[in-house]
Write a structure and sequence with these properties.
Number of helices: 16
Helix content: 25-40%
CATH architecture of the largest domain: 3-Layer(aba) Sandwich
Strand order of the largest sheet: 8-7-9-6-10-11-12
Distance between the termini: 52 Å
Shape: globular
Strand content: 15-25%
Structural class: alpha/beta
């Protein structure tokens, strides 16, 4: 079949494009700007162009795959619509590709990419194997897609944006977090919870729902429900699947870590499971928050039949995900980390991990806000968490799919921070400023195009070592 992707450079779109290409289908696409990811697609044999020009679209197409990140007034979208070519959202295509297989779906407002890539790596190290569609470049695969046609399992990052994850009907599902996010889509937190509840209802009755302890998926729950939930959540209304809990804090869940400690950037913990305790699990070069993600991943693969040795070996060889607590420089004199954190909770988790692993060090953070609506909705929370940095460099907001909102700027957040150690810069200015601040640790954070600054900053910092 002939597939055409509008917005092929997106992390989720490119995963499906790669999967179809490796399967033997003809794939091509358009994106607004070149990126390392689109260049890699081209190197793999997928034609990509960067001009919104309908004349560049192949003459015969069986299906167009598009992402809501591409505006509907794009000339190519309007042309394809007028031509009557079948058009489906990325989420619909993903739902079709997972149908008929045992889908392991990881949902949540953060933690999805790390948890799903851990599960994919753990399974791929065993005879079970898996295919996978990931929301980041997993270093073990050097890709955001894994193709294994001999395995019945497919691991999917289940994105809540635009209710995309409701296209999935998982055999096993994880819900990591339900914090406020994407309120431009949902409007209220209750609406967000209703979507997560529907996702949970869609889990196979013969399968398993693995739920972070302390989460509720039901809006307007009463006090009695909350009290029962806090202790052990064995029931969610309408969910027929078996439910297991996990946590990083506490001892009431089915799966939880104990005796967490670190040495030279590696984290060790004992894993408590319904089948006993697995001592001294090692996670190399990782963040403190990945302990929680690892516990969730362990709950999944142990439920599917992996043993202690397979789990232990899988975690020890897990290499992480690009832009997720990603060490770019690690020397006695300087640490440079890059992280996708773009929500206040994610930034807090990233900075907490840095302080945990490297107490007393001088931390310089560079943050690029992502979306005007998110910046507006969480301005106070951003200011609070970013104020814990020793020095803060803010870049202008990355708009992605949005139009500017009057008064919503990076300066608006900076004004809320009661510190003189803060700067508003362009990326080029940040390159000059960072070395002058004499950092022990540098961290770049954001979900926009800050990734294009990363290699340049790494080169600049290395030249100053």
């Amino acid at each position: 079949m002939d597939y055409y992707f509008l917005g092929i450079g997106g992390i989720g779109m490119s995963a499906i494009a790669r999967y179809l290409h490796q399967r033997g289908d003809r794939v091509s696409g358009y994106d607004r700007t070149p990126s390392p990811l689109t260049r890699q697609l081209e190197q793999e044999g997928i034609p990509v162009h960067y001009v919104d020009d309908p004349s560049l679209i192949p003459s015969h197409l069986d299906l167009v795959v598009y992402t809501p990140a591409v505006p509907t007034d794009t000339a190519e979208y309007q042309h394809l619509l007028a031509q009557g070519v079948p058009i489906k959202k990325r989420s619909q295509v993903l739902g079709e590709l997972t149908r008929g297989r045992r889908c392991i779906a990881v949902a949540g407002t953060h933690g999805k990419t790390s948890t799903s890539s851990m599960i994919a790596h753990l399974l791929s190290q065993t005879e079970l194997g898996c295919s996978a569609f990931l929301g980041g470049i997993a270093k073990n695969f050097n890709s955001n897609v894994v193709v294994n046609n001999d395995s019945q399992y497919v691991v999917v990052e289940a994105d809540e944006y635009d209710r995309s994850f409701l296209q999935l009907h998982p055999y096993c599902a994880v819900v990591t977090a339900t914090d406020d996010d994407h309120l431009d889509i949902y409007g209220t937190h209750d609406n967000l919870l209703q979507a997560f509840h529907q996702f949970a209802v869609q889990v196979d009755p013969e399968g398993t729902l693995i739920l972070k302890q302390g989460l509720t998926l039901q809006p307007h729950h009463d006090h009695g429900q909350e009290e029962e939930h806090e202790h052990h959540h064995s029931h969610v209304e309408g969910v027929s699947a078996h439910i297991l809990n996990y946590t990083a804090h506490g001892i009431e869940a089915d799966y939880y870590p104990w005796n967490v400690r670190h040495y030279n950037g590696n984290i060790f913990f004992d894993l408590r499971t319904p089948k006993g305790v697995f001592y001294d699990i090692e996670l190399p070069n990782t963040a403190l928050y990945n302990v929680e993600n690892a516990v969730a991943a362990a709950a999944v693969v142990l439920t599917l039949g992996l043993n202690e040795y397979q789990l232990r070996h899988g975690f020890k060889t897990y290499a992480g995900v690009s832009r997720r607590f990603d060490y770019r420089i690690k020397t006695p004199d300087l640490i440079y980390l890059d992280d996708y954190a773009h929500h206040p909770q994610e930034i807090a988790a990233c900075l907490e991990s840095i302080r945990y692993l490297y107490p007393g060090k001088r931390v310089v953070g560079i943050f690029q806000p992502h979306l005007y609506t998110r910046t507006r909705d969480f301005a106070d929370q951003f200011a609070q968490v970013l104020s814990t940095l020793d020095e803060l460099i803010m870049l202008p907001i990355y708009p992605a799919r949005e139009k500017p909102i009057l008064g919503v700027t990076s300066s608006m957040v900076l004004r809320k921070i009661d510190s003189l150690s803060k700067y508003l810069c362009t990326p080029d200015q940040a390159l000059e400023l960072v070395p002058a601040l004499c950092p022990d640790i540098v961290v770049t954070m954001g979900a926009g195009d800050i990734d294009r600054l990363v290699p340049r900053l790494e080169e600049t910092l290395r030249s100053n070592l």
